[in-house]
């Protein structure tokens, strides 16, 4: 019993016995070699292959066995003839037959005995100038390997490969060369994921296609795993450094080079070549050793040849100039084509790179969501209420987030292992499940947003004793209750999320804000506004009333708790606490920097869904006209710094701007110094030669518009009073222009 | 001196002439040409014919068109170009001269004048 395989031959699927296929391969190879120097080689071989395909189909119709057997093939080959049968015929007729004007094939076929010792540029197999192909033919190795080496030298050797190539291109004569390698490296169009590079390599080395694929993708997987577990165990990572990581990067570049350099196996014979004879290290080594032994003798010959060539070259240049215009066009075309190819590949690679990065980023983001989702999951009891919300939450987690991950993992595995699914059931199932996931997400969002629809608040007056020294310090007190650090949120040591800690039973919130207002009477007052959200205002108020925010006082120090806890029963409904401190006029207050600890965010439920507005920047908020660790005193106009001297260094946009310049005069020496805030103007007037020396030092250069004019006016006024007014004004004008 | 070699050398000289002659009569598919030549007892391998046709085509003596086939891949049908017809004419006269000369020499002066190609015109 013989193994029957299906091959794609000239666009036809042919069932053929494996041994017959081997024979066919050898036959086409032999034809290829035979016609190697023929001008229309590809066409001839294509014609013959076409004929073979036709005979195959004829035979398959009659044949009872349903496949091409050894016998069939032998008969077909006999009718077409083996190269040894028509040896000489072709060439004879080429030279003798077409006497009149048909010089096309003859000149090439006349050089029968290939002088293998010489190095040429290949005329018939080239990407740019045929240098690589010529070298390969000289060394009897696959041109592709030489091309790859050149590409690597170019990429790695700062372009020295290009220089070498150009030199060889100029120096070497062009010649039509026969390929002497049985198996060539092609990109495989039948089994490609991106460029068919991996499957081509696999056929070249006769290994499973998954091996090169795995090698190329391994760094990506390692990195993905690294990212996941890096996150999981809190190991700090620099993000996905897959592509530019040394290992992954090299492979990435290698892939691009291969993609650019290796040709696609388009015709059947190329595909056969792709799977041709076994190429192993041993045979390559042998070839090279053989070569090296011959190098000595050849090098001398080379020297002579080179001299000869150099003299020829001079003549050629003259002639070349004439024929240049004729020759340039096709050369330019081929060069253009290959450049086009290279650019196309680069463009494709760039596109795929971008797409890959996007996909990768999405994957990582998905992972992050999943893990943070799991991280948040213990908190679900604080948010979710009732059966449906819980169900939808699970639906979201498993269907909405889990399905794409499982699907993409399956897709990746299939892609790498080369399994092609015959039906799309899996796709439909995943699609449906994902739609359910979407439904869950939307329902869940709707259900939850209902709970945040209305606001409710409760105002509480806190009685405090008046501080003895008319100064009140607001500080953070001891931790309220016990709390556990939440590793999932603690990404960089900061608290970006409001939930400080949580265990199964309670969650600590720090959504607290302080507002300082003017007291109506002469006493400090403190009140709490507890806010919450709920389905109805009543519900919201009820939730708000459950907030426990005890304030302690130690004479002039007011201790606020670090946060407030909410229990599983009271649920998380965006509870907030607003601490309103009323300061009487003329009395001072200071907020400790530890108040920074508090965060603030609003969850609004609108028609568009939930809006979360996280605002933990105190200073952008209008309510906060004060800064930490600074004593303020309440005036009729509002808060003012107690210590105004601080302002120069600390507070740049102080409201009470003084227009007065501090003036130091030394009239006898003609020296004036004006100071205002950080600006200093030194004016030195020399009475003898009426020269004026002005130095302007400023820490805060006036902005365009008002300030500038204002300060100018002041200076001008001062200047006019002096006897050197005119010159000073003109100098000041100059100064103004200069600045 | 190998007899077979000499025979094949002799055959080869007229191959192109014969092929062109067949194509001249009607558009032809390579296996038709083979068949026809086989009938005339002039055996030629397809492996020889295809390169020959390609060369003639590249020399602008032949042209071809693709014809869909029910049995297999599309077929190339060859026909003679004007240049090819001229070329054929030249070959024909050369052949006639040659045949005459050969006849004269081998048949002791009895020259043949008519139908030198009767073998191929069946």
Structural class of chain A: alpha+beta
The helix content of chain A is: 40-55%
Number of helices of chain A: 20
CATH secondary-structure class of chain B:
Mainly Alpha
Strand content of chain A: 15-25%
Counting DSSP E segments of at least 2 residues, the number of strands of chain B comes to 2
**Secondary-structure element order of chain B, as H and E?**
HHHEEH
CATH architecture name of chain B: Orthogonal Bundle
Record the strand order, biggest sheet of chain A.
11-12-6-15-18-19
Anisotropy-based shape of chain B: globular
CATH superfamily of chain B, by name, is: Winged helix-like DNA-binding domain superfamily/Winged helix DNA-binding domain
What's the structural domain tally of chain B? 1
How many β-strand runs of chain A?
Answer: 23
Main structural class of chain B: mainly alpha
Quote the CATH topology of chain B: Arc Repressor Mutant, subunit A
Helix content of chain B: 55-70%
Rg of chain B, rounded, reads: 16 Å
Describe the strand arrangement of the main beta sheet of chain B, using strand numbers.
Answer: 1-2
Straight-line distance between termini of chain A: 98 Å
Low-confidence region ranges of chain B: 118-122
Uncertain residue ranges of chain A: 87-116, 232-244, 480-499, 615-623, 645-659, 699-725
Task: Provide an overview of this structure.
The complex is a heterodimer of chains A (739) and B (122). Chain A contains 20 helices and 23 strands. Chain A has 739 residues and is an alpha+beta fold. Chain A folds into five domains: 1-95 and 107-112, no CATH class; 184-275, no CATH class; 384-450; 454-634, no CATH class; 662-738, no CATH class. In chain A, the strands form seven sheets. Chain A has a six-stranded mixed β-sheet with strand order 11-12-6-15-18-19, with no helix packed on it. A four-stranded mixed β-sheet of chain A has the order 5-10-14-9, with helices on one face. A four-stranded antiparallel β-sheet of chain A has the order 20-21-22-23, covered by helices on one side. Chain B is mainly alpha-helical and 122 residues long. In chain B, strand 1 (62-67) and strand 2 form a beta hairpin. The longest helix of chain B has 25 residues, at 82-106. Chain B is globular. Chain B starts with a helix and ends in a 16-residue tail after the last helix. The chains are: A alpha+beta (739), B mainly alpha (122). The A-B interface holds A 10-12, 31, 35, 38-40, 43-44, 47-48, 50-51, 53-58, 61, 79-83, 85-86, 88-90, 92-94, 96-98, 100-102, 104-105 and B 8-9, 12-13, 15-16, 30-31, 45-48, 50-59, 61, 69, 71-73, 75-76, 87, 90.
């Amino acid at each position: 019993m013989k193994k029957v395989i299906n091959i794609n031959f000239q666009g036809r699927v042919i069932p053929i016995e494996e041994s017959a296929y081997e024979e066919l391969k050898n036959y086409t190879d032999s034809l290829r070699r035979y016609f190697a120097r023929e001008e229309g080689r590809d066409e001839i071989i294509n014609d013959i292959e076409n004929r073979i395909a036709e005979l195959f189909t004829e035979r398959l119709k009659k044949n009872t066995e349903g496949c091409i057997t050894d016998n069939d093939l032998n008969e077909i080959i006999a009718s077409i003839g083996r190269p040894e049968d028509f040896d000489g015929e072709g060439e004879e007729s080429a030279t003798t037959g077409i006497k009149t004007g048909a010089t096309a094939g003859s000149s090439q076929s006349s050089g029968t005995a290939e002088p293998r010792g010489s190095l040429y540029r290949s005329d018939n197999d080239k990407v740019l100038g045929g240098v690589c192909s010529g070298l390969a033919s000289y060394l009897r190795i696959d041109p592709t390997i030489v091309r790859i080496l050149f590409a690597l030298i170019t990429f790695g050797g700062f372009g020295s490969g290009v220089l070498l190539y150009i030199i060889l291109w100029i120096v070497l004569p062009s010649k039509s060369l026969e390929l002497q390698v049985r198996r060539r490296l092609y990109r495989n169009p039948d089994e490609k994921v991106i460029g068919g590079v991996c499957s081509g390599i696999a056929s070249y080395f006769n290994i499973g296609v998954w091996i090169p694929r795995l090698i190329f993708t391994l760094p990506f997987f390692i990195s993905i795993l690294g990212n996941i577990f890096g996150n999981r165990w809190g190991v700090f990572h620099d993000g996905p450094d897959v592509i530019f990581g040394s290992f992954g990067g090299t492979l990435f570049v290698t892939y691009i080079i291969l993609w650019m350099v290796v040709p696609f196996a388009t015709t059947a014979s190329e595909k056969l070549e792709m799977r041709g004879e076994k190429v192993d290290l041993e045979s390559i080594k042998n070839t090279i050793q053989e070569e090296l032994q011959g190098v000595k003798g050849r090098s001398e010959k080379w020297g002579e040849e080179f001299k000869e060539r150099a003299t020829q070259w001079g003549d050629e240049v003259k002639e070349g100039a004439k024929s240049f215009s004729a020759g340039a066009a096709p050369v330019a075309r081929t060069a253009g084509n290959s450049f086009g190819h290279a650019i196309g590949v680069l463009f494709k690679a760039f596109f795929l790179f971008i797409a890959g990065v996007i996909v990768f980023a999405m994957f990582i983001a998905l992972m992050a969501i999943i893990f943070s989702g799991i991280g948040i999951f213990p908190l679900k009891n604080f948010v979710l209420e009732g059966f449906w919300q819980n169900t939808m939450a699970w639906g979201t987690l498993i269907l909405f987030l889990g399905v794409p991950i499982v699907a993409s993992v399956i897709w990746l595995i299939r892609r790498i292992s080369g399994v092609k699914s015959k039906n799309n059931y899996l796709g439909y199932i995943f699609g449906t499940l994902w739609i359910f996931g979407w439904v869950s997400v939307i329902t869940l969002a709707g259900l939850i947003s209902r709970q945040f629809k209305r606001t409710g608040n409760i105002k509480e007056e806190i009685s405090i004793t008046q501080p003895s020294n008319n100064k009140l310090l607001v500080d953070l007190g001891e931790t309220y209750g016990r709390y556990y650090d939440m590793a999932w949120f603690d990404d960089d040591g900061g608290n970006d999320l409001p939930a400080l800690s949580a265990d199964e039973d309670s969650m600590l919130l720090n959504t607290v804000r302080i507002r300082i207002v003017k007291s109506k009477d002469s006493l400090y007052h403190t009140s709490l506004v507890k806010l919450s959200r709920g389905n109805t205002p009543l519900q919201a108020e009820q939730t708000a009333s459950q907030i426990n925010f005890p304030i302690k006082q130690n004479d002039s120090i007011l201790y606020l708790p670090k946060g407030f806890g909410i229990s599983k029963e009271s649920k998380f409904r965006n509870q907030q606490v607003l601490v309103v401190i009323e300061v009487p006029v003329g009395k001072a207050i200071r907020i400790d920097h530890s108040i920074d600890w508090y965060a603030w965010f609003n969850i609004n439920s609108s028609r568009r869904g939930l809006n979360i507005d996280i605002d933990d920047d105190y200073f952008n908020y209008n309510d906060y006209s004060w800064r930490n660790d600074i004593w303020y005193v309440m005036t009729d106009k509002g808060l003012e710094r107690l210590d105004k001297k601080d302002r120069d260094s600390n507070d740049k946009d102080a409201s009470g701007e003084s227009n007065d310049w501090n003036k130091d005069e030394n009239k006898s020496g003609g020296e004036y110094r004006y100071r205002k805030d950080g600006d200093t103007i030194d004016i030195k007037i020399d009475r003898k030669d009426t020269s004026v020396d002005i130095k302007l030092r400023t820490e805060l250069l006036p902005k365009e518009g008002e300030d500038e004019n204002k300060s100018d006016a002041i200076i001008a006024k001062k200047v006019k009073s002096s006897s050197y007014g005119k010159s000073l004004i003109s100098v000041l004008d100059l100064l103004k222009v200069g600045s | 001196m190998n007899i077979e070699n000499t025979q094949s050398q002799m055959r080869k000289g007229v191959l192109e002439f014969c092929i062109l002659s067949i194509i001249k009569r009607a558009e032809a598919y390579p296996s038709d040409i083979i068949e026809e030549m086989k009938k005339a007892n002039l055996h030629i391998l397809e492996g020889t014919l295809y390169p020959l046709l390609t060369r003639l085509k590249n020399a602008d003596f032949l042209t071809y068109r693709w014809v869909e086939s029910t049995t297999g891949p599309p077929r190339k049908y060859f026909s003679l170009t004007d240049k090819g017809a001229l070329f054929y004419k030249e070959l024909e006269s050369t052949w006639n001269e040659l045949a005459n000369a050969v006849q004269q020499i081998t048949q002791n002066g009895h020259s043949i004048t008519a139908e030198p190609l009767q073998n191929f015109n069946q």
